Amino acid sequence: MRGRQPYRQLELHEKYGPVVRVAPNELSFSTSSSWRDIYGPRKGVEPFVKSEFYDGGNFAAESLSIVSERDPRKHAEMRRYLSSAFSDRSLKSQEPLIAESVDRLVDKLEEAGRDAHGTNMVMWFNLVTFDIIGSLAFGKDFGGVEAGKEHFWVSIVTKSLRLGALADCFRRFPAVSVVVQKVFSPLIDKLMTENRKHQKYTMDLVQSRLATHSDREDFLTKMIEARKEASISDSQIAAHSSDFVIAGSETTATTLSCMTYYLLKNPSILTQLQDEIRSSFTRYEDINAATAVPLRYLKAVAQEAMRVYPPLPFALPRVVPEGGCTVDGHLLPGGTVVSTSTFAASMSTANFDEPWNFKPERWIGENHTDDLDASQPFSLGWMELQTIMAKIIYRYDMEPVDDTVDWHRDSMMHTLWEKPALMVRFKKRE
User: Mind listing the UniProt keywords for this protein, alphabetically (predicted)?
Assistant: First the structure.
């Protein structure tokens, strides 16, 4: 409720160890082996199905998505018909759509970054990733970067996610939820209204895109192709598109923001990244996904950012199959809800040496000190993430404006991170 759940779970794991009871029938783990046991395929073991937590992520009662579908068979069918949208060929064909928005952002930063008070990069990263996912999911961007301000739908999505955070609290403690729902009734009603707005606007965008009969290389084109054999309704396309918007924009923006914060807090790391990027290219125009993705130190900075600040900070609960099963060496009865805490696992002193220190070197060469497999962040959008950062650092020198910001102290989590402002000044390289 207060937005500090990841930090509280980390405290509990540091105090009580790698397995902690977080609700009457729910256990949280913080080890690399728990990732494999809970989420990975295990020979001769029934899969751990999604818990009722995912019911709170339904786009609409009759339209489950790749995220909210709990039936393994139906989920596998969705993965099959959506896979073409994320194939290497498809992602490569989408690069021009991404580059257009990225270049617009880089150009905008020249003027915005001159301001003595700096410009808020958390805002800009949200704008550009939202524009990109709008282009890929609905056939048009939202014009956020061009306008330099948040599209109204970003606010609606954020409020809709807050409803999910409340639903998760109610799920864990049903006896308390009755009282809480009465106390917070006006707030819940308001969030429900925003959620309905989100559903309606998503549906309007999908139907508008379907009516254009476009052959653009975007996500929706692939779903339209698949609907003929998979009988996908307009509402279900909207549900998948809603997932893409949240998973494909907010998570990438979060990692870019975190990378920028830690680069500015660690000048030696920023200098090393500048050297790698600026020595790899002679012209800005040479930077694209194919040339940026192989940059080793850039990737290590991104990996470390996702370790210290996982873009999806909440746990992904599963249910132990009937008959019971072991997780991290513990035999658990069937029906027990289990999850690996992304934040606790990646920030645990049992898994990482000096976990609060930002050290990209962890991800380069041999590392016999850290359990790197304990960090398993959600990662969608590597291509745009590395391209955006490479282009910004190639063109500009940057400096922080407000040294008082503490990224972890000032962050809150309600389903996704609510990040502090990150004011930065930019100067174009000579």
Answer: Heme, Iron, Metal-binding, Monooxygenase, Oxidoreductase
- Cα torsion 367, 370, 373, 375: sign: negative
Q: What CATH code would you report for 57-314+354-428?
A: 1.10.630.10
* Sign of the torsion formed by the C-alpha atoms of 333, 336, 339 and 340: negative
Does the predicted TM-score (pTM) go above 0.85?
yes
Banded pLDDT at 56 (limits 50, 70, 90): low
Cβ contact 313:416 at 8 Å = yes
Q: Name the average pLDDT for the chain.
A: 88
The whole-number average pLDDT for the span 76-84 is 81
Q: In whole angstroms, what is the distance from residue 178 CA to residue 411 CA?
A: 28
CA distances for 336 relative to 38, 93, 142, 322, 339, angstroms: 12, 43, 43, 9, 10
pLDDT tens by residue, 291-338:
999 999 999 999 999 999 999 988 899 999 999 999 999 999 999 999
430 vs 256, 347, 394, 396, 427, CA distance in Å?
Answer: 25, 40, 11, 9, 9
Cα-based distances in Å from 277 to 16, 273, 349, 393: 43, 6, 32, 7
The ranges assigned to domains in the chain are: 57-314+354-428
